[in-house]
Structures are given as C-alpha cells and as structure tokens.
Design a protein that fits this description.
By secondary structure, the protein is an alpha+beta fold. The chain contains 11 helices and 20 strands. The chain is about 25% helix and about 20% strand. The chain starts with a strand and ends in a 20-residue tail after the last strand. Pfam families: Beta-lactamase, DUF7586.
C-alpha cells in the first residue's frame, strides 16, 4: 500500500510564470523519488518510512511506505529524530551569541558551573572538538530513564575527557547536554521551552515536540536473521535530551530545511546560518569531503555540497540534508534501530531531484552602478609568476580565480572600510586590500600579506624581497 503526498503550500506571489512552471516536480522525477523511498523501506527492512523533498521554500513531494498503527504514514506522522536535535540546540546557542549574551570563543566554564568540559569553548562543543567522551555514563543512556542522571555531574563517566580540547573531532553527546544546560542557565528556563517559543513557533513547526503526540510511530528493532520485530523503549532522557530527544514530522523538517537554507530574521539571520555551514574541523580547502560546522554535519557527495544532520535513537532513524546550490532538501524518517540503508535515503532524494531536474539559475543581471575605481581592480594579477583573474561581481564582491593549474581562488565580500573579506578556501576570513600608487592607480593587491602585482615579478612592483636586477633570462 503506497501513499503519495503532493505539497499543497502556496506559491509565493512574487514568482514569475517561469517559476510557476517549475514549481512542481515532473512525473519522472516523482516516480524516481518514490522508487528510492520504496527500495529504502524494503532493503532497510523498515516497518515504515516517510520521505519528503523541499525545493525553493516549500515541500513539493512526499511519500510514505509501510504502516503505522495500521495506516500508511504521512507528513504529519511523528518520528523521533535523534541527533537532528543537536542542530536545534546549536540554533539556540547562536541566538544567544547574536544577542551579545555570550561569545563562542569563551570557555563553557565562564557561563556554566560544570564538573567537566568547562575548559572547552562553546565553538568546540558545537563542533564536537571539546575532547569529551562520546557517551554518558551508566547503562545505555538512549534506552534508560533520564532519572538515572539527574544532575550534570551524573552524565560523566570515569574518563570524561578523552582528548585535549580543540585537538581533534570526537563526537560527543554529553557535549550537547552541556549546551542545553547552558541555554537553560542563560535564559532561566528549560531548553525545550526556549526552543518552542523562539524557534518552533516562529517557523510554524507545531508538530516538533519533546514527547510524542499522536499520530506517531512506535520504535522497533528488526531481528537480523528473521523478519520479526521487537518494541524499543521511548524514554525521557532527561539531562541528555538536548543530544537527541525531539520528535518531528517530514512536514516540519521541510520547514526547518528552508530555515537552514535562507535563515529567518525572527530566529537567526542568513549570515549566521551561513556560519553554521563552515567546516570547523579539518582543512578548509575546496577538496574536503566531510566535516562538521557549528551544529551541522557537512558532506560533499557526487559533486554536491550537502549540510544537515542525521539522527538515531533506539527504534528510529532520521536524516535531513540540504543543497544550497539546488535549493533543495531531502528528509527521511523511519522507525527501526540503526539502518545504513535508511540513513542514506535523505541525501539520495536531493541527488535524485538534482539529476532529473537541475535547478534553473536566476537570471544574470549587471551591477546597478559601475564604480570606475572598482573596475580598475579587475583583470589579470600575478602572485609571483602565477596568473590570476579578479572579477567584480553583481553583489559588489570580488572573485579571484587562477588562470592555470594550481593557485588558490576565493570569493571576497565587500566591507564598509573599502576592504574585502575572504569567504572560502585558503583565504577564508583573510583581508584583501587594494594598495594604490601616488597617482591613485591600483599598485598591487595585498591578501593576508600575499602580494599580487600587475606583471609577474615586475622590477618596480611591490614584491616582498625585491626582484633580481638582472631580470628574466
């Protein structure tokens, strides 16, 4: 028995006729998506699975397979989303940062009296580089009542700090329990009540809750060698709840995906959302394949950069992946314990849409005003003998691109003081300055002390160390 749910949300009033033409997915795309969900439910041996696709701000497709209480699950059926909860907690912490109530570079101990983890910065806790242990002490915390760990001290085992803070990436559930406690300390109320008021209500996520509300799926374990099921407990994890307690629906997570794509000034600005997607661990080079930002998992898969989060709890698997390039997100929710097949569905939904219906780019438009002083900066520049091209973009930023093999390219955002700040790659966060000669003409570019000149090793150029007086030979 199969159900296919087409999105019914309104199309924005400012879209063009061309936008309306592509608002709904093509039949061949819908069938491919349904096939992926159906295969995921069968191969994953999943009691039920719901998949959904968000594109350009609204849910455009969904499908349910299997049964929940004798019915095919739909976009309003709740599933436990596990560690996807962590992204919601990260949003709360960043709201506090944007309000000036804390600094991500400060140690947690500045704000919270904690027996462990106080030396780690808030950024390290968000990015899982705090060095804290992966799990809470005592019996499997996801299957045992949170009353076993009533205080923060009760979540730490005999060896709570496994690595020096900031040294490497080590996923830590207790780390997010601490971040939830931080929110409670600063706001003076439970982290979930803060989440409800400040995030869920503004975003219209009425079906995202701390405890399940009907209709919801029951969690199951599937026998490894037989097609039989065993009920999994769905306990209140107490202090550990910020690491994986929430329940949600495909429809609500599509709304959250749109927020993670563009932000919402009632919750977090787009600029802050963009900061969450920057890899906090590992090199910042364009060739990286996986990483972790500020509460977001990151991956490059088959040419697509995806951000979001996966989650598991006993009896449940969840996935939410977003592609900014395609303006598309995939959601998958299932009720079984740990399934790699099911976990891959959300990312595959994004890939399927991209393959069948690649996004139609926005029309190219020129700059409204062409500043002659900025136009003078464009064209070829040389770092040593390596050629680059500098382009002025329609948003007033600059784009530096190598003209041959090798070389580091980057985009730069214009600042009010006449400089530009690097947005990616090796120059992320570095400052680009245009240094002018006495007559006002561009003399050279300075990017974090790297000098770019108009000619390769020009004798009269500002080349650090000077140029051999004998010239080229």
């Amino acid at each position: 028995m199969t159900a296919l749910y087409a999105a019914s949300g309104p199309v924005s009033s400012d879209v063009t006729r061309e936008d309306e033409q592509f608002a709904e997915l093509l039949p061949v795309t819908r069938r491919a998506l349904l096939h992926r969900v159906a295969v995921g439910q069968v191969k994953g041996r999943t009691p039920s699975l719901v998949g959904a696709v968000m594109r350009d701000g609204r849910m455009v497709w969904s499908a349910g397979r299997g049964e929940v209480s004798g019915e095919v699950p739909g976009i309003q059926t709740q599933y436990r989303i596990g560690s996807v909860t962590k992204t919601f907690v990260a949003v709360l912490v960043l709201r506090l940062r944007d309000e000036g109530l804390l600094d991500l570079n400060d140690p947690l101990g500045k704000y919270l009296d904690t027996p462990e983890g106080g030396e780690a910065t808030l950024a390290q806790l968000l990015a899982h580089t705090s060095g804290l242990a992966a799990e809470a002490r005592g019996p499997w915390w996801e299957r045992t009542d949170g009353a076993l760990r009533p205080e923060l001290a009760d979540i730490f085992g005999e060896q709570p700090q496994l690595h020096p803070a900031g040294r490497l990436h080590h996923y830590s559930n207790p780390g997010y329990a601490l971040l939830g406690a931080l929110v409670e300390q600063v706001r003076g109320e439970s982290w979930y009540e803060v989440l409800r008021r400040e995030v869920l209500v503004p975003l219209g996520m009425d079906r995202t809750t701390l405890v399940p509300e009907a209709p919801y799926a029951e969690g199951w374990a599937v026998h490894p060698w037989a097609d039989v099921l065993l009920p999994e407990p769905a306990v209140d994890t107490g202090r550990m709840a910020p690491a994986g307690q929430l329940w949600s629906t495909a429809e609500d997570l599509c709304r959250f995906a749109e927020f993670l794509l563009h932000g919402d000034d009632r919750v977090l600005a787009a600029e802050t959302i963009a900061q969450m997607r920057v890899p906090e661990t590992g090199p910042q080079e364009p060739g990286w394949t996986s990483g972790y930002g500020l509460g977001l998992q990151l991956q490059r898969k088959e040419g697509h950069f995806l951000f979001g989060h996966t989650g598991t709890m006993p009896g449940f698997v969840a996935g939410l992946w977003v592609s900014a390039e395609e303006g598309t997100a995939g959601v998958a929710l299932a009720n079984l314990t740990s399934s790699f097949e099911t976990a891959a569905v959300a990312a595959d939904l994004v890939r399927t849409v991209a393959e069948h219906e690649p996004r139609i780019p926005e029309p190219w438009r020129p700059l409204e005003l062409a500043d002659p002083a900025l136009l003078e900066l464009t064209g070829p520049w040389y770092w040593g003998s390596t050629p680059f091209a500098l382009r002025l973009c329609a948003d007033g930023g600059l784009e530096l691109s190598p003209l041959g093999p090798g070389g580091r390219g980057a985009r730069f955002r214009a600042e009010a003081d006449g400089t530009w700040t690097g947005l990616d790659g090796y120059y992320l966060g570095e400052t680009l300055r245009a240094v002018r000669s006495a007559d006002g003409a561009p003399g050279h570019l300075d990017i974090g002390t790297f000098v770019f000149t108009r000619e390769p090793y020009a004798p009269d150029g500002a080349v650090p160390g000077g140029v051999d007086t004998g010239g080229w030979r």
